[in-house]
Structure formats: C-alpha cells, structure tokens
Amino acid sequence: MKIAFIGFGEAARAFSDTLSRTADVDILATYDVRQDESVASAATGRGLRFEPDVGRAIAGADWIFSAVTADRSLDAVQSALDHLVPGQLLIDINSVSPGRKRRSAELVTGCGAAYLDMAVMAPVHPRGHATPVLLAGATADESRGTFEHLGFAFEVIGVDAGTATAIKMVRSMFVKGLEALTVETLLAAATAGCFDRVLDSLAATYPGLGWPDNARYMFERTLHHGLRRAAEMRESAITYDELGYVGALADRIADVQERMGRVPATDLPAGPLEAAVARIATLRHATTHD
What we know:
The protein is an alpha/beta fold. It has two domains: 2-161, NAD(P)-binding Rossmann-like Domain (Rossmann fold), CATH 3.40.50.720; 165-289, N-(1-d-carboxylethyl)-l-norvaline Dehydrogenase, domain 2 (Orthogonal Bundle). Helix content is 53%, strand content 13%. The chain is built from eleven helices and eight strands. The protein has helices spanning 10-19, 37-44, 54-58, 73-80, 98-110, 144-150, 163-192, 195-205, 213-243, 247-261, 273-289; strands at residues 2-6, 26-31, 49-51, 63-66, 89-92, 114-120, 133-136, 154-158. The chain has an eight-stranded mixed sheet with strand order 3-2-1-4-5-6-7-8, with helices on both faces. Strand 1 (2-6), helix 1 and strand 2 form a beta-alpha-beta unit. Helix 7 (163-192) crosses helix 9 (213-243) and helix 7 (163-192) crosses helix 10. The protein is globular, with a radius of gyration of 20 Å. The N and C termini lie far apart (49 Å). The relative contact order is 0.10. The model has no long low-confidence stretch (mean pLDDT 97).
C-alpha cells in the first residue's frame, strides 16, 4: 500500500508515524500549502519526500489522505483533480460539513478516482491511525479488509459521503462548546474577582465533570488547538444551518476558540489555578485589543 498526504499537520504526522511501522505500507510523499522549513523537516525527518506541488506528491500513491485545515479542504481536493487517476482513493479526514464532503466526493469521483469520508473521533495522539474513525462512501464496504489489515479502528457508517462527518460535526457542537463554556466562564470569573465561588459552585453542581482537572484540560485544548477548532466549528455552524438549527451558536463557540488560539501560550502557567487563569485573561485581553 503506497500512501501520500495532502497537508502535513498534526493529524497527518500522527497517521504517518504509526502507519510507517505497519507491514505492507510505503509512505511516499506529502504536499503542504505551507512550504516552509518546519513542515519540510517534519516530512523529510520521517522519510517522506516533501514536494512543491500536489501532482508530484500523489503520483503513484494508492491512498491519498487529505489532512488540511477545515477552511482549505475543498481547495485541497480541487488542487488534486488534474492529477488523480482511476484506482486511487482520496481519504478526506478533514472536519467539515456534510455538504462540503458531498461536493468533494462529486469532484473526485468525476475524474475517475474514489472518495472516502473519514471522521476522526478522538485525539490522534498517541494512537495515530488506530484512533477511532467513522467511514462513509461508495467504497467503504469493499475497503474493510484493507483497513482491518492495516490496523485501523473503524466503523463503516454508510455508502453516502457526508454521513460520517455529520456525526462528528453535530457532536462537535457539544464537545468544543463545553470547552468554550468552561474557559470563558472561568476567565470571566477571574476578571470579576469571584473565581473560587464560581468554581466551587460548578464543582458542586456538576461533580461528574472532574473539577478542577477538567478546567486545566479545557484550557490546554483551546490554547493549543483553538485556531483549528475554530475552523471546525465554522463548519459545524454550516451543518446546523443545513439541518435547520441554530448554527450561530457554533459560530460563537468558534469565536471563543479562535480568541484562545491567538493567546501567546499553549497551556496554563504553572501554579494555583486562579492565578493561572488570571494570567491567561490578561493575555487574552491584550491579544483581543491589539
């Protein structure tokens, strides 16, 4: 099995790391719109060719993983159309709306290649390609044996592209929304001078959430991944609008995730939780008002 990647960020690197240790897999190359030294080093350090264009990266590959930011998923598909050939399978792992994946599927199958909607349902570290995923597409059933052989933890949802990502996009409103609610509430509490009272009240009302450890986790996720999560939530908003519900709620969650992602920190500072949150509040205000 010869594999190539379009996009070489966190998910692609995690998949590459574990797939490269799997028998019968040859990871050939990657293309990333970020043609810089950090991405090039990440690719070549793993033994991949880092190509300057999509065509050279995917030539000769059996499977092509599209793993870009949500806002660039359709661009990634369109950049490959002139180079895809029958027999190749493009696996779209991007967190985008069902409508976006249906459109991508139409474009890919229109040029003779196959398309698979893959929804990654948990953090990609430390399991890499063995992270639980959902699959949907015309070739999902016939690909079962290969996915099993390569060690994927997967469930086939159906034959229609978009049905796997629909599950993730609907679920994401809750998961990323809970993160946004947690960090925004505690930031406001620290700013208002009522941090202990608010935290104690939340812990008493919702003890199953695991306070205060879950608060630290929520801050780490939004600080480290906020920009990517914001792009995903914009797609979740489109999904909810398509379904006739309030997509604007997901857009507001995206606003929080984006603001957290722009804070110049990737985790809470060490020390007492209230002081750490207060420090992030100061950085957030400074970043927002720059």
